[in-house]
Design brief:
The complex is a heterodimer. By secondary structure, chain A is mainly α. Chain A contains 11 helices and 2 strands, in the order ααααβααααβααα. A two-stranded antiparallel ribbon of chain A has the order 1-2. Chain A is globular, with a radius of gyration of 19 Å. In chain B, a hairpin with a 2-residue loop joins strand 4 and strand 5. Chain B is α/β, with parallel strands linked by helices. Chain B has a domain of 164 residues: P-loop containing nucleotide triphosphate hydrolases (Rossmann fold, 3-Layer(aba) Sandwich). The longest helix of chain B has 18 residues. In chain B, the strands form 2 sheets. Chain B has a 6-stranded mixed beta sheet with strand order 6-7-8-3-9-10, sandwiched between helices. In chain B, strands 2-1-4-5 form a 4-stranded antiparallel beta sheet, with helices on one face. At the A-B interface, helix 6 and helix 7 of A face helix 2, helix 3 and helix 6 of B.
Chain lengths: 300, 237
């Protein structure tokens, strides 16, 4: 039971990270029906930004909490700028073309960004300092959950609540939902849908950057390629929950995190990455719309 | 000066010309109807006015301003709202949220609230269902919601695309009465596109007949209602 609990908690932490990335996929898909394959790269760039900014500040002798705050802020802003720019440059000009062209454009952007970081930084794994503080009150239960995992859980919970509030109650949130349901009608009530789409990319990218920092602190290393694997897994999580559905993305992410964690714990760690794809195949066969996929009743 | 005027408007889908130089005008306070058969270009006319399908030549003038190159969401803020064909309710938003979206560009909360009460008075049915998802309403209720949503923008001119489509005769009658009431009580100018020529001409001051993307006739409603050609082709008499 102890072992199970441990695996369950680490799976939950992992699932939280996937959720932060999967939200970006699902929000963008919900609004422009595009799988943004460059999303994983935005997450990786978030991690690198935090590493560079944080390293620089550490070398100046700035105190840890300040370093943490500033590097998170820098990563969020820089990634959001990337997300915004990618949409403007690579997707908007193709919006009224066939969906395949935007998809190919997304894959292209993903490769460009990976190689940009490969050239600008290094192909090696870099060690990522743990920016996150050691929480004293967790000492008695540290066998089950460590500080980093705890911070991941809390951060994700806060982000989810904030996002839910934004989408449910704010003006931009309502505009996002309306745009996702009927773009033309949204235009006809006066919504500037280009702006809404940009905001969606910005929010998704900011969440991915937060995920990037958290996972790098957790793993203690970073590499230009991490966005690819994490991106694919978060994509699986989004499809699992039902692409386009926000609660679905969160649910799918947790299921994926638990499966991976329990699978490695009870079966074999060699297959860690395989579990995600086994789930993907099963979902595509059994319930192609995903767990919370759209099948809402609609009268014509 | 007319509140809304189309001057020689042509719209294309690719190489196919859907509107062949349409001209018409709507005076402030009037109900003007555009009737025509399926595929005549009625919906295209409305979408061209709203900027959704941009026109290739000609001018759309709203209150003296040429709006033909202004983006659709800005046209709404100039006092023009559309109730599109098929109602286009946001299915997963509640009735209240749908109405809220109608007032998207307005920020005076107390005026919005007053308008909401007014709309609920016009359609008590919507008040009962305010927290229900738009997609679960019946066809008639959705039409009421679509009209109310457009009214929430406080338009000076309201464009309606086939409000009678797919509704039971009794509900159609109801909806047309309300359209007339909106025109009389709120002084909202109305441009009504309809296949149901009889109903439309009965409440309108003036009518245009659209055929194959061109205006074939323009006259007062009384004249059109007794016009031999119109009676044969559109009134089934």
């Amino acid at each position: 039971m102890d072992y199970f609990l441990k695996l369950f908690l680490s799976g939950t932490a992992k699932g939280s990270i996937y959720a932060l990335i999967a939200l970006g996929y699902t929000m963008v898909y919900g609004i422009v029906q595009l799988i943004n394959f460059a999303h994983g790269e935005v997450y990786m760039i978030g991690g690198f930004t935090a590493l560079i900014v944080g390293g620089f500040l550490f070398s100046l002798g700035v105190s840890t909490p300040v370093v943490l705050l500033v590097s998170i802020l820098a990563a969020v802003l820089y990634s959001a700028a990337f997300g915004f720019t990618i949409e403007r440059v690579a997707y908007r000009p193709l919006r009224n073309k066939t969906r395949l062209s935007a998809l190919i454009s997304a894959i292209g952007i993903s490769l460009i960004l990976q190689n940009f970081i490969l050239l600008a930084q290094t192909e090696k794994y870099l060690s990522f300092p743990s920016y996150l503080p050691e929480l004293k009150f967790l000492l008695p239960v540290r066998e089950y959950i460590n500080s980093t995992q705890f911070i991941i859980l809390v951060t994700t919970a806060i982000v989810m609540v904030a996002l839910t509030f934004l989408i449910k109650f704010t003006r931009i949130g309502k505009a996002m939902r309306a745009t996702a349901q009927d773009k033309q009608m949204a235009l006809l009530v006066g919504v500037n849908i280009n702006q809404v789409i940009s905001v969606t990319f910005i929010i998704g990218s900011a969440l991915a950057a937060i995920g990037g920092i958290l996972i790098c602190s957790y793993m203690g290393q970073i590499n230009y390629y991490i966005g690819f694997v994490a991106g694919i897994k978060a994509f699986v999580a989004a499809v699992l929950g039902g692409i386009g559905s926000i609660p679905g993305a969160v649910l799918g992410s947790f299921i994926l995190g638990w499966t991976e964690s329990l699978g490695t714990g009870y079966i074999s760690s060699d297959y860690e990455d395989a579990f995600a794809f086994i789930i993907l195949i099963l979902i595509l066969i059994l319930k192609p719309d995903g767990i919370l996929g759209k099948n809402q009743k609609q009268k014509v | 000066m007319a509140l809304m005027e189309l001057k020689n408007v042509s719209t294309y889908y690719g190489n196919i010309q859907a509107l062949k130089g349409i001209s018409l005008s709507v005076e402030e306070g009037e109900i003007v109807t555009l009737i025509g058969a399926n595929g005549a270009g009625k919906t295209t006319t409305l979408m061209s006015i709203c900027g959704i399908t941009p026109i290739r030549s000609g001018q759309v003038i709203l209150d003296g301003v040429d709006i033909s190159s202004i983006s659709p969401h800005k046209i709404v803020s100039m006092g023009l709202s559309q109730v599109p064909e098929g109602r286009r309710i946001f299915p997963q938003l509640t009735v209240l949220e749908n109405l809220d979206m109608g007032a998207f560009l307005r920020d005076n909360k107390s005026l919005i609230k007053a308008d909401l009460e007014e709309v609920f008075e016009l359609f008590p049915r919507l008040a009962e269902r305010r927290n229900q998802a738009g997609g679960t309403l019946s066809g008639g209720e959705q039409q009421m919601l679509a009209i109310s949503r457009a009214l929430m923008a406080r338009p000076r001119i309201l464009l309606l695309d086939e409000p009678s489509l797919g509704l039971a005769p009794i509900i159609v009658h109801n909806i047309f009465q309300i359209i007339k009431r909106i025109n009389e009580e709120r002084k909202t100018t109305i441009f009504l596109v309809e296949q149901n020529a009889n109903m439309a001409l009965k409440i309108a001051n003036k009518g245009y007949v659209l055929q194959n993307g061109a205006i074939k006739m323009a006259d007062s409603s009384e004249h059109l209602l007794v016009n031999e050609e119109v009676r044969k082709a559109y009134l089934g008499l």
